[in-house]
Amino acid sequence: MKTLLVTGGAGFIGSNFVRYWIHNHPEDRVVNLDALTYAGNLENLDGVDESPNYRFVHGDICDGEGVKRLFGKEGIDTVVHFAAESHVDRSITGPEAFIRTNVFGTFNLLEAARESWKGDSRKCRFLHVSTDEVYGTLGPDDPAFTEQTPFAPNSPYSASKAASDHLVRSYFHTYGLPVLTTNCSNNYGPYQFPEKLIPLVFINALEGKPLPIYGDGMQIRDWLHVEDHCRGIDAVLRGGRLSETYNIGGVNEWANIDIVKTICQRLDQLRPGDQPKAELITYVKDRPGHDRRYAIDAGKMNRELGWKPSFTFETGIEQTINWYLENQAWWERVRDGDYRSYYEKHYGR
Fold it and tell me: Domains of the chain by range and CATH?
């Protein structure tokens, strides 16, 4: 039996991972540590709390002493570290929170693991979940990011994640901590907070509101279904080489504007209205330092671990749209409070 500490397990990717792990590894214990900031939502875990091998702990990874006590009390031997401030727009208007959580919080977890596992760490694992944004931006014809691509972060968010990636690596080379790092591309799927592109566009289009698109909308991203991401992390935990980095990508490059038009076309079929949804598209001023293109080469994942994405973007976006249509009560509740003020600040007239 493993005892996993999943940080940020009430957020979008973290909650999907908790669900995945409990379903696929029912013999393991899962301790979910989440501060329940604006993007953390315990409704994401409805039904999971009925599992006898699951425990939720309301706490902050920036509380170093609290994290150390949790390691000792629960006998943690595996860490899957999702907890992070992750929205680029928020990092531009308020970078301090990103440094605090993404850098200092990761440091606290590393220190707690180092202290707790100093006797014997051979069966322990510390997996740090990072982002392809640490690599910077690509030109239209540049090859995709590999694990050897130099870091070149262009936002406070990506800079804070790059810093935490370096910290994790250093704890292997300095202290022998059994670390692994994954850098993923843009995730999408159920339970995603509505500040992100796909749920934001879906909800606004459904309600006949403007669809805000940065710049010309031709920023290109690689899109990874969250379920494929969970399978990829599982593969790295089971077979990844210590201190190595593994890029997990969907092999699905799409321009933002094409994503928006795809959602509009599908909603026109499912929920036709008085006008085509694409007529709601509204171009807004581009954000500072907006990376033009991301693309991930996931060849290492396939060669070493036999992993490849199971979702095409077409099958994944269909499943995602259907989930949001069937779970309107969830996203209506999520939009209350902080989200409304944030939306008005960034996209309001």
Answer: 3-187+225-250+292-310 (3.40.50.720)
